[in-house]
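Students often ask why we bother encoding 3D structure as a string. The short answer is that it lets us treat folding as translation between two languages. Here is a chain of 101 residues written in the first language.
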Amino acid sequence: MELKWWHIGLIIALVLAGVISPFASSLPDGLERVAIDHDFIELGEGHEVMHSPMPDYVVPGISNETLATSLAGLIGTLMMFGLVYGIGKALKGSSVERDKN
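And here it is in the second language, the structure alphabet:
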């Protein structure tokens, strides 16, 4: 099997996601930091706007936090790859159809 450039890119992305994810900052993101600084963080607690399959970037049900974070990074990377790959295929297919006409 011939390795293509995107195979190598995907492998690198998966290695980075699996290895570096546990080292991500545990500090709040920008929006959360503003809510804390201006004392309205409690208004958002318990009012979930959208359900997340991996809240706080960890896979639920796994007690080892490092493993749960690594898996979340791997799953997120694969999901994004699948989404972009699917969009690319759809756009390429529509371009082929346009060229035939």
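Translate back mentally: The longest helix spans residues 65-100. Keep this in mind for the problem set.
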